[in-house]
Amino acid sequence: MLRSAQAASHTARAAAVRAVHTTPAFAAKRRSNRKAELEAQRAAEAEAARKAQEQLRKLKDTKFLNSLVNPKQLFSTTQISQEDAALSSAAMLLQTKPAFSSGATRTADANLRREASSGLFACNIKPAEVKLVTDIAPKAMVGADSRYSLQVMPEMAEKSAHIQADIVRRVVSLDNANSKAIMHYNIGKAVETFGRSEDDSGSPEVQAAVWTVRINNLEDHLRGHNKDHHNRRSYTKLLHKRAKMLKYLKRESLERYYLCLKQLGLTKEMVEGEILQPKRIA
């Protein structure tokens, strides 16, 4: 009798609790609590991601990384000039403009109108060679042309030399280069910064810096092309190559290793730990 009474009491209490937990008010309260928990969890995750991003930004604020050229920033800050008449005269002098203008020709003309505002030059042109390429060579070309010699038409010769110098300056400017040429320029900066000599392209620091340039370039690409799995695989392979080279540098010289990490904006966890890549690059 006692056991049956206890069982009945337990069943009654369970039924009462079940009745309370299944009421609409209790269900609404439970949903509200769950929603608050999820919001707090998302806020904590967002704050952690923000702190990690801020720490990474401070880590990458190095002299070498700041000296690299970002194609998006370069193209967004480049100004388009309105010197259509001068370019038309230049095309007429050079006899390169056809009688009709196709879409490709119009695009090329628009690219030529882009001013060389950054002061950076592609095609491995060094600062000492800029004046030769953009000033002396065009004047020599005009001087060799009998139609616009200084004796026959001095004003036209001077104007033609100025126009050709401007065209050459825009052609070799990094403002009008494609992403591949910009990456080639950044690789040259890496060799110049980390090389022990002018022709040093094989030391561990140089190779790690070159791979860092390529990694940064792929990161910018993958931010806008999340499903490009081919380049994502190349990105992961470059990360492992750089880590392997830096581990070799650590075995050779601990001082050079930590100096290289600081200049490249890396931590030892990025090199010595397991490299796990997120599915989406923020």
Name some characteristics of this structure:
uS15_NS1_RNA-bd_sf, 3 domains, 30S ribosomal protein S15, Helix Hairpins, mainly alpha, Ribosomal_uS15_bac-type, Ribosomal_uS15, 282 residues
Compile the SSE list and pairings.
Blueprint: H1 2-21, H2 24-59, H3 63-67, H4 71-77, H5 84-94, H6 103-112, H7 127-144, H8 154-172, H9 179-194, H10 204-224, H11 229-252, H12 254-264, H13 268-272
Describe it.
Keywords: Coiled coil, Ribonucleoprotein, Ribosomal protein. Residues 35-62 form a coiled coil. One of its GO terms (molecular function) is structural constituent of ribosome. One of its GO terms (biological process) is translation. The protein is mostly helical and 282 residues long. The protein folds into 3 domains: 2-59; 63-70 and 179-272, Helix Hairpins (Orthogonal Bundle), CATH 1.10.287; 80-113 and 123-172, no CATH class. 72% of the residues lie in helices and 0% in strands. It is built from 13 helices and no strands. The longest helix has 36 residues, at 24-59. It is elongated. The chain starts with a helix and ends in a 10-residue tail after the last helix. The model is unreliable at 78-115 (pLDDT under 50).
